[in-house]
Structures are given as C-alpha cells and as structure tokens.
C-alpha cells in the first residue's frame, strides 16, 4: 500500500503546527510540491485533500491552498454553536471524551449555581475536548431531564444539541453568557493539559428553548492559548 501521501500530509501538517509554514500564506503549487517531495501530482493531491479535510488549509479558486490559523479556534460569543459543529472544520484533530454522565437532584447549593428548581432532576455531564493531541477544554453541563429526556452517554459523546433539535424536535433559542478568567481548579489540573498555564478562560451559560424555558447550564473551561472568542459589533 502506498502511504507516501500520508507521510507528506504529516510533514506539512507538522510544519503548519510548529509555525514553520505560517498561517495566511499560500502553500507551494502542486507542481512545486511534487518536485520538492519527488512524487507525482496525484500523490500531492491526496495529501492536500487530507490537509483540507483536517482543517489545515482552505482551497481558493484560482490561487491555490491558503494555510489556516490552527493555533486558535474561533468561538462566537453571541452565537450558539456546538463543539461538534466547530469540530467539523478540524476533522480528526478534535475529539470528545465523556468523563462523567450521572443523574442528579438539584439541592440548595446547586440551585443557587445553575438556577434550576429545587429537587429538579438533571443530567450532570463532564466532557473533555481534545485538539491536536492536547486536552484543552473541560465542559461541565447540567441539563433538565424534564425538558431533555432520554439523554445517554453516547449522545453526549456525539452532540447534545443535535439530539435536542433533530430527535426531540425542540428549538434552542438563546443564552445568557458570562466570561471570566480564573485560576485552574484541581479538576482542571487533573483533566486538562495545563502545564505552564496559570489561568483558564471560563464561559458560563444559561441556555433556553424557544418558549424561554432554561434547559441547560454549562460551564466551559478553556486553556487560554488555544481559543479566542469572536463577535461582530455595530455602533447604534
């Protein structure tokens, strides 16, 4: 089996990750790459296809392949986007691992934190997001069992929002968000790759359905070097 295109893909991907090939620049042409790697243009096309599918490059008609900035992932502040939707742009560079999936009854302390009713049954979920081989996000979710029945660990490993919208037929409408910078907790240190980092970026969200019912409280804890939060603002 000819794996030469995989070796070429890995070499170029590594050079993009290390910054040797800078974001925003154009890759060499297929012809130049075939000469550099002493292989056929068909082999180069296969390597470029993998780079495109894994989110390293974007093909531009008439220009070639532009290198994307993979060091950070854009999280829209005002939008409601699932990690699975963002991960589609990264291909196999991103994975999700469910660490905790439990049923829990809301007590007084949890009631104050997540704004759900006392004694309400919720799903408690912890998911670690891995990008480029490093654990960089810890998502901590509480989801109403009354509004979102039938949740499972398998669904959490895939996409909760997809399940809510496509399987339950509900409409996710809006969220209230708070963004803070905090010192890492012991749980952050245990589950995330934080060596050399002294802060995490924390996004706390209360998420609502179309009828204004809160179905989710989420706390997303990010390693600060990997992510940027973006928005579009207009002066009124």
UniProtKB/TrEMBL annotation:
Residues 2-70 form the HTH gntR-type domain. Coiled coil: none annotated. This is Trehalose operon repressor. It comes from the Bacteria. Keywords: DNA-binding, Transcription, Transcription regulation. It comes from Paenibacillus xylanexedens.
């Amino acid at each position: 089996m000819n794996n030469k295109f995989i070796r070429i893909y890995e070499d170029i991907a590594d050079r993009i990750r290390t910054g040797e090939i800078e974001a925003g620049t154009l890759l060499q042409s297929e012809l130049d790459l075939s000469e550099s790697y002493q292989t056929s243009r068909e082999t180069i096309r296969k390597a470029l296809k993998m780079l495109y599918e894994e989110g390293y490059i974007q093909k531009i008609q008439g220009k070639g392949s532009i290198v994307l900035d993979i060091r950070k992932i854009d999280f829209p502040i005002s939008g409601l986007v699932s990690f699975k939707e963002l991960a589609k742009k990264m291909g196999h560079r991103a994975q999700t691992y469910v660490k905790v999936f439990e049923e829990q009854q809301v007590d007084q302390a949890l009631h104050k934190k997540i704004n759900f009713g006392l004694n309400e049954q919720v799903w408690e979920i912890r998911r670690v997001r891995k990008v480029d081989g490093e654990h960089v996000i810890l998502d901590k979710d509480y989801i109403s069992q009354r509004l979102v029945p039938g949740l499972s660990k398998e669904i959490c490993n895939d996409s909760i929002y997809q399940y809510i919208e496509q399987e339950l037929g509900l409409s996710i409408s809006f969220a209230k968000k708070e963004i803070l910078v905090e010192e890492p907790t012991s749980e952050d240190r245990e589950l995330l790759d934080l060596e050399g980092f002294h802060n995490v970026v924390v996004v706390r969200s209360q998420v609502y359905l179309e009828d204004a019912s809160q179905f989710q409280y989420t706390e997303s804890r990010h390693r600060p070097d990997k992510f940027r939060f973006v928005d579009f603002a207009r002066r009124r």
